[in-house]
Amino acid sequence: MKSPLVVEPLFYIGPVPITQPVVATWVIMAVMVLFSILLSRHLKQRPGRTQAVMELITGALDHQIEDVVQSDPAPYRVLIGTIFLFVLIANWSGMLPGVEPPTAHLETDAALALLVFAATLYHGVRSNGLVGYLKTFAEPTWIMIPLNLVEQITRTFSLIIRLFGNVMSGVFVIGIMLSLAGLLVPIPLMALDLLTGAVQAYIFAILGCVFIGAAVSEGRDTASQERSPS
Amino acid sequence: MTVEEISILSAAIAVSFGALGPGLGEGRAVAAALDAIARQPESAGTISRTLFVGLAMIETMAIYCLVVALLVLFANPFVK
Predict the structure, then answer these.
(1) Is A175 on the interface with B (CB under 8 A)?
(2) Which domains does chain B have, with CATH numbers?
(3) In A14-166, beta strands by DSSP E
(4) Number of helices (H) and strands (E), helices first, in chain B?
(5) Least CB-CB distance to A4: which of B46, B60, B74?
(6) Hey, is the C-beta of A133 within 8 angstroms of any chain B C-beta?
(7) Is B76 helix (H, G, I), strand (E, B) or coil?
(8) Which of B49, B53, B63 is the closest to A165 by Cβ?
(9) pLDDT digits (tens, 9 = 90+) for B16-73
(10) Do A203 and B66 touch (CB under 8 A)?
(11) Burial of A228 per CB tally in 10 Å (0-12, 13-18, 19+)
(12) Nearest C-alpha of chain B: how many angstroms from A203?
């Protein structure tokens, strides 16, 4: 049986091997960019049907982000929304025949999780300043510094493994069912895969939001505590 | 027993025991969340979002076991 941890290269551009997940990622990116350009080209004050649907999705995203971060969702909308839509489309792309979801391979998930990690650092430093952000690692006492550092790494790692494990196990189970039973039998499992894919995309986005929100608000709490001597 | 046989057995044990704990934990979490929603239906949105994130955290333990099992089966360092 094919190992889920190894990816075979499809073709080579010069010395660089290009694998199937990379091609799938490029196609998804192209589709997303194309759709957003097409849909946002004729924005009107009185929205038509497609624009109303898009505004509904954006509004729902904004609402979720605002609930988690407890502040204006505008700085996080682009990153979190794009990650959510990309992971959702990537998870569901496995339903197309011949396509394996790119999120079923470790490398794509690692890239996404590193994006979230970088965004956590960026927003933490931007809202608290470098010193203020570094100070949040010594909360509540300086003894917690190593634990806080380890937490940063383990939660990024668990973000990778969670998405990879869920999507990959779905693909794997469908493959095993196909080799055992064949026609029409894996359909309930594929329906379950749709549900898992949506839930995992939601969880990935919300967890990224929680991490960024924690990095932003931890500093805010300590700053307000310093300002008001109790 | 050869290393391969031990690997297969240990992969099965890892997944079975790794699924046991998170299964119990998720059951308790869902029961508690349902209890809370029944008491306060107006805060169902917040509770279910927190529940989803918490379930994902718990489920990660089972997924870790699955990944360990896959490592043992497909990327075993002791099998040449």
Answers:
(1) no
(2) 3-74 (1.20.20.10)
(3) 16-19
(4) 2, 0
(5) B74
(6) no
(7) coil
(8) B63
(9) 999 999 999 999 999 999 999 999 999 888 888 888 878 877 887 888 888 888 888 8
(10) no
(11) exposed
(12) 6
Mutation pick from A65, A66, A169 vs chain B, by most beta carbons of B within 10 Å, is A169
The answer to whether the CB of B54 falls within 8 A of the CB of B22 is no
* pLDDT tens digit at each of 230 positions of chain A: 567 777 777 788 878 888 888 899 999 999 999 988 988 887 888 878 888 888 898 899 898 888 888 888 888 889 999 999 999 999 999 888 888 889 988 889 999 999 999 999 999 998 888 888 888 888 778 888 888 888 889 889 888 988 998 888 888 888 888 888 877 888 888 888 898 899 889 889 988 998 998 888 775 655 555 554 44
| Token representation of residue A11 | 């073709």
The rounded radius of gyration (Å) of the Cα atoms in chain A is 21
The two structure tokens encoding residue A193: 């895969």
Q: Do B63 and A210 touch (CB under 8 A)?
A: no
**Of B17, B63, B38, which is closest to residue A203 (Cα–Cα)?**
B63
B44 contacts in chain A (CB < 8 Å): none
The answer to whether the beta carbons of residues A90 and A24 sit under 8 Å apart is yes
The separation between CA A88 and the C-alpha centre of its own chain, rounded to angstroms, equals 9
* A154 interfaces chain B, CB cutoff of 8 Å: no
Mutation site, A166, A167, A204, A209, interface B, largest B CB count within 10 A: A166
Q: What is residue A21's predicted lDDT score, i.e. its pLDDT?
A: 87
CA nearest to A201, candidates A121, A67, A118, A108: A108
